[in-house]
Each structure stands twice: as structure tokens, then as C-alpha cells.
């Protein structure tokens, strides 16, 4: 029995079904603001009826755009799945870009080989723009981007390139001040901190906010460093307890590291918050699942992702400059402090 090959609907089919010209259909599908409301509605209805799907390859020949944005995570691949912040940023960015019919490609640039693959992909003209996630100062990828003439925006400022690469971010320094001042107001006298990597804005700016409040009391033995992973929070907490057994509070630079710190405190027989108060940063889902639940700083990640996408789309659409966006944080008190 012969099987008839069903023909893919074309733009001519949409024009016939909508009762407008092929040119009007094309302009409507490409977002031309001068297409009338009635014509646009007719085209949308005809697209739904015919099952027409835009041929991206054909469209890119006309628009000189790929309809694709690359999100580059400058971390090892396993962090994409461990840190809940990345899933929020990825989900929101994907949804916002889809509203403009732009696809998101996720690429990891955690080592030299990964970075080279990202650069090859971008040099090949496969993307209209780049969203940088967890960019570290001094990353060789940043220098490569300079020579590609492709719009790039960062989730969080890129240290040393704040005036070069636009960004949207939470106010990390002020959020750290809020948490540290709260611990001081709770009567804590020997307050430690676990930072993120100091070549990232979250690591450096949160440490600066901690020092803003404590001044000379922010001594080196009360400062330990992590990499935003749970394991690094465990290691840093153990170091702090070994150096300063009588510490009575710790501000941890992320909820995930704070979960690791809580595990070590529990293993060492320290009660939270009676013996040691613990504060985190993010207000991710982790904060509500720890025991005790985590007092933390809420950063508006969904807004950060939304603003990052907005800035990038403005650059793709031809804007010469855009203004970075810094969003306020909020202290969220629970049982850990």
C-alpha cells in the first residue's frame, strides 16, 4: 500500500488561508510593527490552522539573525545540576527568550577544552548574542569575546569589566551588610564568614559587605573561602572551627555552602542557633529544607534573569549602549539565626 507524503505547509498556504499577501505574512511573522492588528490576527489564525512552522534557516538569510542565544556557564558541568540558582536563571531566560521566538543554547565552559568549543561555536555565527553566567575575572573566554563583535550580557557583573560588559545583578554588598548587621544585632560577638570565589562579584562583594559592618573585627582567621558547592561549605566550616572554636555566628556566601556548614556544625556537636547562628545568601529552595531552616538573604534571581535577557535583546536589536541593572536584596529570617 502506497503512503502519501504529507506536504509541509508553506508561507503561500498561510497567505491563502489568511486572505492577505505573502509579503504581509512575511512581515507579520518577522514582527513588523506596521502590520495592522486585523492582518496580524488573520495570519496567526492561519498559522494555527495550517500548522505552518517558520523555517529558521530561510529567515536567517533575510534577517541576518540566527534566532539563537547562547548561555555560557563558566563552571564545571556538575555545578549546573548541584546549584539551584542556575536552574532558575536557565528557566526564566528560556521563557523570556521564547516570547521573542528566540531559542536558548546552553554551553558549559568549565575548562580550556570547553571554552574552545564555545568560541568555535560563536565564531561560526551560530548565535545572535551571549548570556554569561558565573563569569570569573581573568577568564580567557572574555578576551576572546572582545574580538567577536557579538552582543554579550552577564548575570552578575564581571569584575574588572563592569564598564565593558553590561549586566543585571542583585546588590551583593548591601545584602551581605544586611545579614552581618542582623547577626550583630542578635548579640553575636565572634562572627565568621565563608565566601564564594573572590574572582566573582558574589564572592568579593559579599565579603566587602561583611567587612563594612565588622571593620577591624573581620580578621583573617574568621574568613574562609569556598566555591559555592556544598562540599566547600563543609571544608570551610571545619577550617573555621579548628581555627576559632568559640565562634558564635557564620555568614555563608550561598545557601548551598550553608547547608554544608550546618552538617559540619551538627557533626561537631554545635547547636544551631543556640551555639552558632548561621546565615546564608540566595533564599533558594535549599533554605527551606535545611534543619533548622536557614535565615538568608533573598536575591531576586527571576528579575535578574529577566533584566539580563532584556538588556541582551536590546543590544541585538541595535542599541549601542544599555544601562546595567542592580536589584535590591531582602533579609529573610528563619530558625538558623
From TrEMBL:
Give coiled-coil spans as residue ranges. none
Q: Which residues form the HTH lacI-type domain?
A: 9-63
Classification via Gene3D superfamilies: 3.40.50.2300, lambda repressor-like DNA-binding domains
Keyword field contains Transcription: yes
Q: Which InterPro entries match?
A: HTH_LacI, LacI/GalR-like_sensor, Lambda_DNA-bd_dom_sf, Peripla_BP_I
Q: Which domain of life is it from?
A: Bacteria
Q: What is this protein called?
A: LacI family transcriptional regulator
Q: Which Pfam families match?
A: LacI, Peripla_BP_3
What is the native source organism of this protein?
Catellatospora bangladeshensis
Amino acid at each position: 500500500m502506497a503512503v502519501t507524503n504529507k506536504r509541509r505547509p508553506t508561507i503561500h498556504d498561510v497567505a491563502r488561508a489568511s486572505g492577505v499577501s505573502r509579503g504581509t505574512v512575511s512581515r507579520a511573522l518577522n514582527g513588523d510593527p506596521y502590520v495592522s492588528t486585523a492582518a496580524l490576527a488573520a495570519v496567526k489564525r492561519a498559522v494555527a490552522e495550517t500548522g505552518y512552522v517558520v523555517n529558521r534557516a530561510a529567515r536567517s538569510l533575510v534577517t541576518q539573525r540566527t534566532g539563537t542565544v547562547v548561555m555560557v556557564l563558566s563552571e564545571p558541568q556538575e555545578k549546573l545540576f548541584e546549584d539551584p540558582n542556575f536552574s532558575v536563571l536557565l528557566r526564566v531566560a528560556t521563557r523570556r527568550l521564547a516570547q521573542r521566538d528566540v531559542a536558548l543554547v546552553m554551553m558549559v565552559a568549565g575548562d580550556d577544552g570547553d571554552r574552545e568549543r564555545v568560541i568555535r561555536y560563536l565564531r561560526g555565527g551560530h548565535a545572535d548574542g551571549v548570556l554569561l553566567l558565573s563569569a570569573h575575572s581573568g577568564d580567557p573566554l572574555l578576551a576572546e569575546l572582545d574580538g567577536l563583535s557579538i552582543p554579550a550580557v552577564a548575570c552578575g557583573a564581571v569584575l574588572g569589566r563592569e564598564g565593558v560588559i553590561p549586566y543585571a545583578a542583585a546588590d551583593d554588598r548591601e545584602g551581605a551588610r544586611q545579614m552581618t548587621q542582623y547577626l550583630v544585632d542578635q548579640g553575636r560577638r565572634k562572627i565568621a564568614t565563608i565566601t564564594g570565589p573572590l574572582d566573582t562579584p558574589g564572592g568579593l562583594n559579599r565579603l566587602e559587605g561583611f567587612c563594612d559592618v565588622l571593620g577591624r573585627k573581620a580578621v583573617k582567621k574568621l574568613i574562609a573561602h569556598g566555591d559555592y558547592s556544598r562540599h566547600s561549605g563543609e571544608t570551610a566550616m571545619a577550617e573555621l572551627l579548628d581555627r576559632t572554636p568559640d565562634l558564635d555566628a557564620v555568614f555563608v556566601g550561598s545557601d548551598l555552602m550553608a547547608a554544608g556548614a550546618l552538617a559540619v556544625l551538627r557533626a561537631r556537636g554545635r547547636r544551631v542557633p543556640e551555639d552558632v547562628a548561621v546565615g546564608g545568601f540566595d533564599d533558594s529552595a535549599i533554605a527551606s529544607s535545611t534543619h533548622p531552616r536557614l535565615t538568608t538573604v533573598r536575591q531576586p534571581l527571576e528579575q535578574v534573569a529577566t533584566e539580563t535577557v532584556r538588556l541582551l535583546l536590546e543590544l541585538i536589536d541595535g542599541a549601542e549602549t544599555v544601562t546595567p541593572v542592580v536589584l535590591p536584596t531582602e533579609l529573610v529570617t528563619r530558625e538558623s539565626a
